[in-house]
Amino acid sequence: MAPISLRSSHTLDEPKLEALVELMYLAAYADGVFGAEEKRHFARSVQSLTDRKVLPDQLEQLITRLDAARKASGTAALLEGARQTLGSPGACRAALSLAIGVITADGAISNAERAMIHEIGTALGLDREGIEEMVREAEGG
């Protein structure tokens, strides 16, 4: 089976798109459940980032691949790889925003999800105050 290409006409290159998708995936599993609303938001975000080139069966394959990578490498290694790939503070902030969007898709942020937001944000080099500001904005405050 050929790998799923995340190439799009967006200005981000494929490794950066993959890092964004990986971070959204990690966020979706923060509380151990990939709920229906989170999965729909994740799918819409992936579709948007890839100009709608990822078909539903490819999305399932992508999720399977990301789950295997998480289990094989661990969350910390994936986060470090994403930070190196994204590089700039602006790209890291955008990545955290996308991750928060997946987490808040079901209308609530659990303690585990809040911890994952901070783990992702810290790994991406963002300060605690900036992370909290992004969470407040996502919560509508």
UniProtKB/TrEMBL annotation:
One Pfam family matching this protein: TerB
Domain Co-chaperone DjlA N-terminal: 19-132
Residues in the signal sequence: none
Descriptive protein name: Co-chaperone DjlA N-terminal domain-containing protein
Record-linked Gene3D superfamilies: TerB-like
Transmembrane segments: none
